[in-house]
């Protein structure tokens, strides 16, 4: 999508549909009255007739007699006292998708005011751009039936009458565009089916990043991983004919100890020999959502030229029940040296992540953050509106919570008390890979913790948050949500500003 930033008055458009965000208490403001007069007083008349609800996210489409602004979409922001950046994101998303449905191809919006809430022009512009770009995402790659019928908005103009704000707006829009487009690419990686989004394809995606940005990519083949001693990752990879890839990305925007970002990258999770039931198994193409989020976040870090050293690790493989697949009861030796009894081959994510976490330690990271669609129990506990947050370090946990507050990518803190440890102790090995039904997300996280070697570490279980199987939300269509990208970028940019 083309985004333009202009300083111009309200009604000097080029035929775009104008998005007008209004607060319920605006009771036609003097500014609005002035615009409205040029439109023959239609807004005021409707207002007086109480035709508008003013409720947050409701919209009204008006047709005008102006060539420059033929249509205006009013989008209600609720009360000015309760406005937030996320509400701006939602309102812009709702407006953009409503206009797309109504056949509009170009939209324009004035920089929104934040009432009494303190937010910089840059942040508001960023939220506006994110709302529009995120909401308009569509996954139509395989819809040959749609052909010419795909509706698309191709242009977005954000304008202000105050030309002194243009620089700040430009900065925010650029950030918003980088971030939202990265989220959308991440969504596509996860929406692509398992026969396309293979470990080799993930390798390709990583290598494409390394061509466009100063990012180094190294890929370990299965045999390399075997030689290094990644018995857990290789154990999972045994069951599939699809070549596994252990992918390492390095962005060196600064010297010093890196941040390690690790993403679960199971390109399809059938469960292996502990086969999943058929119902909803197709969803398991998204079991590489953690890895896709890491790719998105590193891309934005490079675009923003953040002065940080970042390592990305994607242990990519299918989890399949092939002839050489692990059996329940098998014991594997992890890269750390710890042995694991594989009680259930469907608890494959923690096996791959264990070796990835251990591998990350050779970079002496100052922090490790892993993202994983790790447990069904997480979906049971939190649904799709939050990621479960675990960690071994208060400061790192708080930094992630702060990033969550700013982005509205919700995280919820969970305990990993040592009392749970008995559930994952094995009689025949050091650990077992499942802890039974009680506290399934917690025992999975506690398993991972064993490999973090007291390095500050956070684990985000994104099993629920990574997929919207419900209704479209204002800026989150159905399907993959791209969860984690905005959160990670916020964490990283905050760190870079320190
Ligand atoms: N990828 C799944 C987790 C998952 C399941 C996410 C359902 C979303 C919906 C993971 O690999 C898995 O299968 N976990 C098992 C672990 C169990 C065998 C201990 C689970 O949650 O059932
Ligand atoms: Mn599984
Ligand atoms: Zn899985």
Write up this protein.
The structure is a single chain. The protein is α/β, with parallel strands linked by helices and 498 residues long. The protein is built from 14 helices and 20 strands. The chain has helices at 30-38, 42-48, 85-101, 121-135, 166-191, 199-212, 222-228, 231-237, 289-303, 349-360, 376-382, 394-407, 440-449, 485-497, and strands spanning 2-7, 17-22, 59-63, 71-76, 106-110, 155-160, 215-221, 245-252, 259-263, 265-269, 309-319, 331-333, 339-341, 367-372, 387-391, 411-413, 431-432, 457-461, 467-468, 479-480. β15 (387-391), α12 (394-407) and β16 form a beta-alpha-beta unit. α5 packs antiparallel against α9 (289-303), α9 runs parallel beside α14 and α12 (394-407) packs across α14. Zinc ion binds next to β10.
Defining traits:
alpha/beta, 9-stranded mixed β-sheet, 35% helix, elongated, binds manganese (II) ion
Structural class: alpha/beta
Mean pLDDT: 96
Which residues sit in consecutive blocks of at least 5 with pLDDT less than 50? none
- Give the CA-CA distance, first to last residue: 33 Å
Main sheet characteristics: 9 strands, mixed
Share in β-strands? 15-25%
Structure ligands: ligand BES, manganese (II) ion, zinc ion
SS elements, strand count: 20
Q: Give the proportion of residues in helices.
A: 25-40%
Number of helices: 14
**Gross geometry:** elongated
Give the C-alpha Rg: 24 Å
